[in-house]
């Protein structure tokens, strides 16, 4: 949770974090507990973690303590659909003491 911004965290998602593949190509995931945050449904042209140019359909903002859950290609269960993580960007203010958070770009 982003301290002082609890009233803006009006959405919840769960994440199926990609934890690896077996020798047959089966993907293993771990599903998180519900994560509060803010979902912005606006389309944008972004770069993936691999540097490819892709279209993002939404961005999810939450506390930076959740960053490890949002690995690229993990599935995010939104209120009305399932999306894939394109990238997770951390906004850390350092000594400025501003609200630290992550912005998760989703398909």
Write structural notes for this entry.
- The structure is a single chain.
- The chain is an all-beta fold and 107 residues long.
- Helix content is 0%, strand content 50%.
- Strands 1-3-6-9-8-7 form a 6-stranded antiparallel β-barrel. Strands 4-5 form a two-stranded antiparallel sheet.
- 21% of the residues are buried.
Topology:
Elements: E1 11-21, E2 27-31, E3 35-40, E4 44-47, E5 53-56, E6 58-62, E7 75-77, E8 82-91, E9 101-106
What sequence of helices (H) and strands (E) makes up the elements?
EEEEEEEEE
**Compute the gyration radius: what is it?**
14 Å
In whole angstroms, how far apart are the ends? Answer: 23 Å
Number of helices: 0
Supply the helix-strand structural class. Answer: mainly beta
User: Which term fits the overall shape?
Assistant: globular
Range of helix content: under 10%
Strand order of the largest sheet: 1-3-6-9-8-7
Mean pLDDT: 86
Sheet-strand content, in percent, reads: over 45%
Largest sheet: number of strands, sense, barrel closure: 6 strands, antiparallel, barrel
| Uncertain runs | none
Count of extended strands: 9
Quick synopsis:
The protein has 107 residues and is mainly beta.
Which terms would index this structure?
107 residues, mainly beta, globular
